[in-house]
Every structure is written in C-alpha cells, then in structure tokens.
Task: inverse folding
C-alpha cells in the first residue's frame, strides 16, 4: 500500500543524495505524457508567436482582391500560396492565425502578470494581517465570485470600451479573486509554521517575511494556477473578441476573426475552422501542462 | 473434512518496486464450530489472508494456492455469482475499523437489511423484525429506534456491534473477525470479544479470530496460528502454545504480555518491525530480530516442521521446557 | 481544474446558538452569508455603471447635446445632484422594492424585460445541465471503475478537450455539421415560424405541450438540442472529471469492501454504495456550474439567436442601454446566489452527517 518513493530503482531521491527538487519535479513531470505534449505544443506556439513576422507567408492585413474566400490547398481551387485559404477580403488565413498566436500569448502573459500581481498583493495582505482587512478582502472576493466570470468580464469590457487592452484588463480583473484566495490559503498555511515564527522572532519585517520567507514556500500552487490562468485568459479574451468587445478588426485576434467570418460559415467553413482550432489547441495545451504541473508539484497527489 | 481448508496460499502485490508477497505459502484449516486464532504484529499479513478467503483482494493483487476450499467448494475456480452466494452468507467478516467500514450515507438498518434481502430473500415485516432481533442479539439497546440511525451517530463500539449483526445476519458457518477490537477503547474491547465468543457458542459457527493481542487469543481460541511477515511461524493448540512456545517469535510475543511480566520493571518488547516490501532479509525472515540468530538462520529459510503438538518454522526451536528469560 | 472550492462559510459563527434541527442551523448559516454578498453586488452594480465615461444623462442624450439648464433640471429630477451614498441608498431602496430601472431603448421596466426572457435562458440552461449530468456522470463513473484503461484515458482526454473548448466556435462547428450539412436541426431561434403557441410559462417545451401541439413540441425540442449541447459542454467536462476523482476516492474506502463482503453485486456496490457517497461533492460542483451556464449563455444565445437573457445583455451593451445592463447583472448575480443556496440545501440533504448531526 504505502510504498516509499525512495524505493524505486533509479528514483529521484536515493537516500544517499540530498534531495534535488528540480530533478525530482522533472522525474514526476516526465511521466505524464499529456503534460509533456502540452509543454511541447506551448513551446512551438511560443516560437511561432515570436517569429511570426518572419515565418508568416503573407502580411496578415494585406488584402488580395484576386483571391477572395479561396479554399485551403487540399480543396479544389486551393493553392500553395494560401495554405489554409483566404478570408472574405482575400487575407491569408494561415498568416492571420500565426499572428493571432502572438496576440494570444501576449494576452495570456499580460493577464496572468496583472492578475497575479494584484491577487498576490491582496492574498498576502489578507492572509498575513487577518482581521478586518482580511474580512473586507474576502467579502469583496466572494462578491466577485458570485458573478459568472464571463459576464463580469463582458460588463467590465463594455464599460471600459472595446479594444484588446481593455479586454485584457477586464479578464485580468475577473480572475484576481482566484489568485487572491489561493495565496491567502497558502499564506495561512505557512504563517504558523516554525520557520516563519523563527524569522519573525529574528526581527524580519512584514514585507521581508511575506516576500522572502513565505512566498517561495507557496510557489507550487501559484505556478499551477498561473499556467491554468493562461488558458482562461486566452479563452475569455477570445470570447470577448467574438462578442465584439475585444480586439477590433482588422486585428488578427482569433476570437475577432471568428466573429467577422460568421456570415461565411456555409460558403467557406475554413474561415471559421482555423482560428477555433488555434484557440482549442492552445488552451488545451495550457490545461494539460497545468494538470501535469499540479500532479508533479503537489506532494499529496504524487502517486 | 475441514470447513475451511487452505494449502500453500500466497498473495502477491505487484508494485512499481517489484512483486511483494504479503502472504507467503500459508496453510490453515478450520473445522466446523472451531475457534482458530491468528496472531502476529501489524503488517504480518493477517488481513490479507482473510481477504483472500473472502475473494476481496484488490485489483493488482494475485492469489495463488494449492487448495482454497470452503465446505468442499473450491474457492479458486468458483464463478462470481457462486462466490456471492457464499460470501456474505456462509462466510462473513467483521473488519478492523468500525467507523469507516459502515457506509456513512445509509442507515445501519438499511445496511443490515441489505444482506438479509440479498441472501435470505426476506422482505417487509419479517425483514424488519429479523433486523431488530439481530441488533438486540448483539446488545444494542433500543434496537427499534437504532434502525434509522446513521453510523456517525453511533459510537465505535456500537458500530462494531452493527458490523457483527450484519455479519451474523445470514447465520454464517464461518465468521472471520479481523482485529474487531483494535480501534476500540479497552473497556469496549472486552465487551465485543465476549459478544463474539457468546455468539460463536450459541450458534456453533466457526470463528477465525485475528488479533495481535496474545491475551485475547488465550481466552477464546482453541487453536492458534502465529504469523510473521506473511508466513505461519508456529501453529498448535492454544494451551500448548501458551505453555511451551517453540518459536522465538511466539515466545517474544508471550513475554510481551503484561500479565506475564509481573515483577519486571519494564515490559519486554521485540525490537524492530515486521519487514515490509523493501527490507525482507535473506534466510529466516525473523533473523534480524531474533535473540537466537545463528549463521544458518541468515542463509537458509526454514520450513514449517511438524512436531508432537503442532508445527514450527525454526531451525532451533526452543526446548519443550521454557527457560526463564533474563 | 474544477472551480476552486468556496470557503469561508464554515468559519462563520452565529452570535447565538440555534438548537435543533441541525439542518435548519446549517441553512440559516448559509442564508446569513447571502445577505452581505447580495448587498455587495448591488454596490458593484451601482458603481460599475458609474465608471462609464460621462454622466448618465449625457450618455442618454448621446451626440444630440443638451442645454445646460435642461441638464441641471434632469440631474435634479434623477437625483444625480445628491451625494453618492444617498444615490446608492435610493438605488438600493428601489432594487429592494423590485424597481430595477427602465430600459433606455424600449422604455420598459428592466425587471419586466428580464422576466419575460428569463424562462428561455432557464430552459436552455436546464437542458444543458441535464445533458451534462446524463453524459458526464456515467462517463466519470466508468473512467473511475476502469481506472488506467483505454476507456479512462479516452474519457479524461475528451473531458479536458471539452473543458478547453471555445464554445462559441464549438457552436459554429455543430451548426455547420448538423444544421448546414445534415440539415437535422434548425440554425436559430426556439420554434419554427410555422407554429405559434401562447406563452403560458415561457418554457417552450411546456407551452407546446400545454397547447397540445406535438409537432410544435418536436420543433421546440429540435431547436433546443444543439444550444444545450454547446452550453453543456464545459459543465459536462467538469462533472466527468469530478465524478471520476470522487469515485476513485470512494472506491478505496473501507465501506466499499464491506459492501463487497456482503456478497452484493458489483453493480450495486458501485451504483449504490459508491455513487451515493461520490454524489456529495459532485452535486456541489454541479451547483457551481450555474455561473458557468449563465456566463456561457451569453455566447450560446448569441450564436443560436436564442431569445434569452444572454442575448439581451449583449444587445443592451451594443445599444449602450446601461440601466438594462445594470439590472441584468444584478438579477443574474442574484440568480447565481440563489442557485448556490439551493445547492447548499441539496448538499445538506445528501450528506447525512449534516442532516443528522449527532
Ligand atoms: N493492496 C495492497 N497492495 C500492496 N500491499 C499491500 C496491500 N494490502 C496489504 N499490503 C501489504 O501487505 C502486508 C500485510 O498487510 P496486512 O494488512 O495483512 O497486515 P496485518 O497483519 O493485517 O496488519 P494489521 O495488524 O496492521 O492489520 C503489509 O506490508 C501491507 O503493506
Ligand atoms: Mg489487518
């Protein structure tokens, strides 16, 4: 039943060697094929995003009036010049999807950074100081969580006005409560442990305690949440784009592309297919990675 | 013919570290109406043995035996539905942890009636009356009203009584009680054991009483098997075993009994623990903890050798007359 | 991956002890928590709309412009010259008496518009959750029972895909396949124009049955299927995963071994003894899907032109109908809170340890 991990031949932590967290993490992570696949896909998408201007065959905004709604290369009438076909005003779909990767990765990065920063602050303060501050912050969070997150994002985006940046901002605001709550729980779990008390006794100030002593010890759930946060951010930003509240045409954002191709659903399904596939694959990759990270980082679930 | 007949039973679990023999070639027979005690420390394979008899070894576990028969039926080759007709009816089991062994979502009445419904086909009034009667027999006060109680509303001792009522519901010919008192308070322990002994006498059913308490066995069992690391190391009639243990492990267990330690300042204990999956020694499995280990014990594994009253698995069994331990 | 568990509830202590029955105490504690949350939501709804650049009146008159004295007059009439807290108090008073304002576009009371469209959304959401439970629960149980098998991996892979699905695109794909290519289901709306049924309850399935028109009922059903599948996809994924992990945990419990030791059939052991216990966390998760459903309704209703709250909200946004938006979010949030309270109740009913404290 209870079998010691150390007993595994070639296992991560032979008793003779000191534990190496990174090695051990990689050992567990590698066994999860889905997570490794997710990581690989993310690396590919990230590379594509960085290199977009150089690898995209066309300018995503240039219209070719001679090639309107041209099907992908494997259909009749497709050509190698437009591998995934063209949209209603003759723009290359492949190039737009490639540039869309740029935007989506950027959205993920900015949203996660913003919400992480705010959530971290709120959660730390709430968990560390407790009392009235804690109650106030937790109430606020409860209130935000009582709203369906997409609804809240839509409303905030509507108020801020449409645009990619505002969409990012509203998605970031909406996910803050999740981070705050997570951090607070982690801080509460750590704050009473001996090492924190020890450094408090040693005269560490609250800021130092929070950032240097406690934070590194609640990294694991944070990393997982941040990874999953990427997928939420990309999905919600695309949804806002689809509703006309996110990036505006002609920006090659995946959700926006879908919205502006709705009327061609019957005539030219490929216009609709590829941006959606891109969203699905990216989001799935981040979810796979997040799940894998959780399993590899969380000692309780390690087996 | 013996009611339960086990020859060379082994149970293996395949884990990532390799194959682990939790039970290693044990023999055991139980006659109709007989009380057999199985003793041994934690981890010696007592529960796994009884689960193997019940056919309840969880998935990757593998059960092999030369013979595993109950009332003449071969339990190894039996079909699922045939087994279900025996298990829960003719063989019943009481588990170690009364608080977690009952389903928290159903009333105790429901859980007892379920067995009666499945095996005896009782319904309605008869079912209810029989259940109340059972609860009464196991000494639960106000049985009528307890039918609708949930396990979390009862104490551990009460829950164990419910478990016993459930087990004896269909008049089993063999009851396996797997450390029925380990999780209970000392005062309750005695009551539960007395209850089991009484029920056994009244109904004439065979009882396998598993425990790691030698004292409990002394009071109830006619015959005792001592298990260590998945093997039977000594077996003989209770009286002989207590009088003249031959295996050093049995002797050590007996020495650890408080009533045998009168006059000593400290209770003698056996240093170390039962070897687990990773640390099974070569030779005799008990050699790292034995006071009498010789070179031979570390190289060869002893067989269970029959003697005048039973059998011992030791190269150097203790002499028939016990020396006084220092 | 499932939504983070709600906490905080357990920590609240009532200032006075409430004796038996425990179920009532449990409920009162939960209900007590709802009041501050509801107040908080009114604050949020009140101030969110204030964040819209420009004065409500300027927003209302838009480009046309307005004379300064007329502006002052209107401001006074609407109470906008009052201090903010006073304005909020008035707003709260109105809300509590059921006055959620008037739509700028249609001039109807927001609450009336909401209530007339709400049944459509409920019908859709109910169908979606039904689909999600009917498929997700057995799938999760199967995955747990066959842990590590091909079935398990397939169920888990599909559910993670479903969880990652951009449902607005998923809806389009299904329309493309089932409506455009196969012609099995209609593309939009709730009922063919051929039929007319008197809206008695607002639930099309019920209304068509009440009217005794089975053809209309069939049409309503065909309209409902695709949107319900789309809206139910993410809840389905969450339910399947949650069911699997709850079942895995329960299947390792001692009482399952006891059930087997009684000689019960495997079907009964899993379908009754294990599932009954696994259902407790699963029901909580199902309840938490209320928010996902109402949020997803915004997208689903837009794609399928489903005349419900989601589509109405998007239209209100596009028409800059801020009172409608304000009323809408408040009412939706209230619905979510109510559903969560209901789920808490169900949780209490399902869990004997809460229903019958010792
Ligand atoms: N399902 C299983 N998989 C792997 N190993 C197992 C399994 N069940 C039991 N074991 C191992 O088999 C050995 C014997 O266990 P068993 O439960 O029979 O001991 P026991 O004598 O009943 O002890 P206790 O007095 O604690 O009940 C233990 O080392 C245990 O870890
Ligand atoms: Mg045991």
Result:
């Amino acid at each position: 039943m209870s079998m010691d991990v150390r007993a595994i031949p070639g296992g991560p932590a032979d008793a003779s060697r000191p534990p190496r967290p990174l090695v051990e993490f990689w050992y567990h992570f590698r066994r999860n094929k889905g997570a490794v696949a997710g990581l690989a896909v993310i690396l590919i998408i990230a590379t594509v995003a960085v290199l977009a201007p150089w690898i995209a065959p066309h300018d995503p905004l240039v219209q070719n009036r001679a090639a309107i709604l041209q099907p992908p290369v494997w259909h009749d009438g497709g050509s190698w010049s437009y591998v995934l076909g063209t949209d209603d005003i003759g723009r290359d779909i492949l190039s737009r999807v490639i540039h869309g990767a740029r935007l989506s990765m950027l959205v993920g990065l900015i949203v996660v950074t913003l919400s992480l920063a705010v959530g971290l602050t709120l959660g730390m303060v709430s968990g560390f100081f407790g009392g009235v501050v804690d109650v106030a912050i937790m109430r606020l969070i409860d209130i935000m969580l009582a709203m369906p997150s997409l609804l809240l994002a839509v409303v905030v985006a509507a108020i801020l006005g449409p645009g990619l940046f505002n969409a990012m901002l509203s998605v970031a605001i909406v996910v803050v409560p999740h981070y705050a709550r997570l951090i607070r729980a982690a801080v509460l779990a750590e704050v009473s442990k001996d090492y924190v008390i020890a450094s408090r006794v040693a005269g560490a100030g609250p800021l130092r305690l929070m950032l240097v002593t406690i934070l590194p010890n609640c990294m694991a759930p944070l990393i997982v949440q941040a990874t999953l946060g990427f997928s939420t951010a990309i999905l919600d930003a695309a949804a806002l784009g689809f509703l006309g509240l996110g990036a505006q045409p002609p920006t090659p954002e995946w959700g926006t592309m879908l919205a502006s191709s709705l009327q061609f659903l019957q005539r030219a399904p490929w216009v609709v297919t590829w941006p959606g596939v891109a969203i699905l694959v990216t989001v799935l990759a981040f979810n796979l990675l997040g799940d894998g990270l959780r399993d590899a980082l969380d000692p309780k679930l390690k087996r | 013919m013996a009611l339960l007949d086990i020859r060379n039973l082994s149970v293996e679990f395949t884990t990532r570290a390799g194959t682990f023999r939790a039970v290693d070639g044990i023999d055991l027979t139980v006659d109709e109406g007989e009380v057999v005690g199985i003793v041994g420390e934690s981890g010696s394979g007592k529960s796994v043995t009884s689960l193997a008899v019940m056919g309840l070894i969880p998935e990757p576990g593998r059960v092999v035996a030369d013979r595993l028969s109950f009332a003449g039926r071969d339990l190894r080759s039996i079909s699922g539905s045939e087994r279900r007709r025996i298990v829960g009816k003719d063989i019943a089991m009481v588990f170690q942890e009364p608080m977690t062994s009952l389903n928290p979502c159903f009333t105790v009445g429901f859980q007892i009636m379920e067995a009666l419904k499945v095996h005896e086909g009782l319904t309605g009034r008869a079912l209810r009356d029989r259940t109340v009667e059972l609860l009464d027999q196991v000494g639960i006060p106000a049985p009528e009203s307890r039918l609708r109680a949930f396990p979390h509303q009862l104490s551990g001792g009460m829950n164990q009584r419910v478990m016993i009522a459930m087990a004896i519901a269909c008049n089993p010919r063999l009851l396996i009680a797997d450390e029925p008192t380990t999780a209970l308070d000392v005062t309750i322990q005695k009551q539960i054991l007395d209850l089991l002994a009484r029920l056994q006498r009244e109904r004439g059913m065979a009882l396998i009483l598993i425990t790691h308490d030698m004292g409990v066995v002394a009071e109830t069992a006619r015959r005792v098997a001592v298990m260590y690391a998945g093997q039977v190391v000594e077996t003989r009639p209770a009286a002989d075993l207590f009088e003249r243990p031959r295996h050093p492990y049995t002797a050590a267990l007996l020495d650890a009994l408080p009533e045998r330690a009168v006059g000593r300042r400290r209770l003698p204990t056996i240093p170390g623990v039962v070897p687990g999956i990773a640390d099974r020694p070569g030779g005799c499995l008990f050699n790292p903890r034995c006071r009498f280990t010789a070179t031979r014990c570390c190289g060869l594994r002893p067989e269970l050798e029959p003697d005048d009253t039973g059998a011992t698995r030791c190269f150097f069994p203790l002499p028939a007359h016990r020396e006084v331990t220092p | 991956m499932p939504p983070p568990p709600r906490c905080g509830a357990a920590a609240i202590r009532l200032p006075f002890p409430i004796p038996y029955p425990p179920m009532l105490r449990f409920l009162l504690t939960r209900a007590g928590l709802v009041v501050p949350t509801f107040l908080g939501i009114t604050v949020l709804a009140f101030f969110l709309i204030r964040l819209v650049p420009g004065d409500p009146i300027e927003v209302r008159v838009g480009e046309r412009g307005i004379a300064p004295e007329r502006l002052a007059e209107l401001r006074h009439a609407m109470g906008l010259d009052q201090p903010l807290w006073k304005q909020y108090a008035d707003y709260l008073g109105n809300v509590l008496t059921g006055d959620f304002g008037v739509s700028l576009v249609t001039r109807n009371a927001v609450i009336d518009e909401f209530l007339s469209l709400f049944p459509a959304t409920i019908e859709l959401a109910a169908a979606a959750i039904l689909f999600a439970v009917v498929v997700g629960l057995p799938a999760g149980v199967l995955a747990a029972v066959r842990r590590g098998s091909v079935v398990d991996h397939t169920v888990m892979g599909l559910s993670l895909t479903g969880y990652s699905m951009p449902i607005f695109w998923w809806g389009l794909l299904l329309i493309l396949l089932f409506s455009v290519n196969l012609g099995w289901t209609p593309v939009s709306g709730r009922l063919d124009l051929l039929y007319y049924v008197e809206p008695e309850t607002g639930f099309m399935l019920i209304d068509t049955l009440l009217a005794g028109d089975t053809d209309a009922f069939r049409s309503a059903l065909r309209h409902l299927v695709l949107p319900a599948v789309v809206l139910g996809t993410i809840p389905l994924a969450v339910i399947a995963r949650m069911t699997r992990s709850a079942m895995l945990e329960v299947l390792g419990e001692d009482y399952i071994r006891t059930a087997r030791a009684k000689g019960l059939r495997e079907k009964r052991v899993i379908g009754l003894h294990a599932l009954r216990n696994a259902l407790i966390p699963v029901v909580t998760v199902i309840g938490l899907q209320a928010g996902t459903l109402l949020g997803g309704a915004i997208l689903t209703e837009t794609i399928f032109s489903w005349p419900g709250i989601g589509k109405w909200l998007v239209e209100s946004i596009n028409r800059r109908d801020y009172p409608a938006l304000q009323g809408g979010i408040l009412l939706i949030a209230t619905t979510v809170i109510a559903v969560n309270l209901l789920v808490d109740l169900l949780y209490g009913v399902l869990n004997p340890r809460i229903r019958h404290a010792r």
Observations:
- Confidence is low (pLDDT under 50) at residues 1-19 of chain C.
